[in-house]
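Blackboard transcription, Thursday session:
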Amino acid sequence: MTETLTPLVAAARQGDRLAFEELVRVTTAETYTLAYRLVGNEDDARDVVQEAYLRAYRGIGRFRGDARFTTWMYRITANCAVTHLERRRRHRHEELADDAPLADGSVERDPQARADASALRDQVSLALQVLPPRLRAVVVLRDIYDLPHEAIAAELGITETAAKVRLHRARRQLRAQLFPMHGEEQAARAV
Amino acid sequence: MLAASIEGDEGDDWRVRHHVGTCLRCQAELARYRKLVRTLHGLRTEVFDPGPGLVAEVLASLEEAGERHLLRSLLSGHKVVYVGGLAVATAGAAGALVIASRSRGRRVPLAG
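(Written on the board underneath:)
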């Protein structure tokens, strides 16, 4: 993918509008996937994708090219998603606290199903969706998209230490829900 | 602490390593964390279908943004023309006034 994108990125940086449009076509699904994972629903994800490409279009001249275009897009998308979630939170006042109990109890805990890797991925995806957005953003960017702590902190507008703390909290909640230890099963079932 | 040690952040802390090395419960918990992180990494290859229309919507918004930008630059270009024209007109008017006052000044002694 990177090799295919390189000439397009170079042309887009020179102001070639058609090259940028082609970049949009090639990368939309990936950008949408990240946006969906961060905001948790289709409508918001579409809004985030639009905003992200607008920002990228305005900033492509400043893209230095020392990172991959997709990584650059991930950072912009993460930033847009956070702004979007903030706006939504201000409207709805519904954000859960970091340590609030998970609301969804529908994650399958049948040991047989857990053995199935595909089922496990579905469970993890589901569990991610019920994490508080601020924790979800960090674990998605770090553990799925492999962004460094520094970049995550910069895009989320938090310190690197805060990013690490959120990551550990997110992993702890996911681990307790998906792979409960002895004595945690009841608590996990209760949510 | 264990959630951090998967990352390697606490990997150099010999106390953590030593404890995990001797504690079966922590070993089991660490194994669960590793499984979780492996599964999360596996999600990277999944791509959701954005459904029809998203690319078109994005391209339309880019088009609109491009047109707005063009309009803005045109307007700011017009501004330069207006200001330039106004400056030329002002300079012309001032010059005409100076010439008129000079020629009036010259005529007075001739009349006398």
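Lecturer's comment: Confidence is low (pLDDT under 50) at residues 100-108 of chain A.
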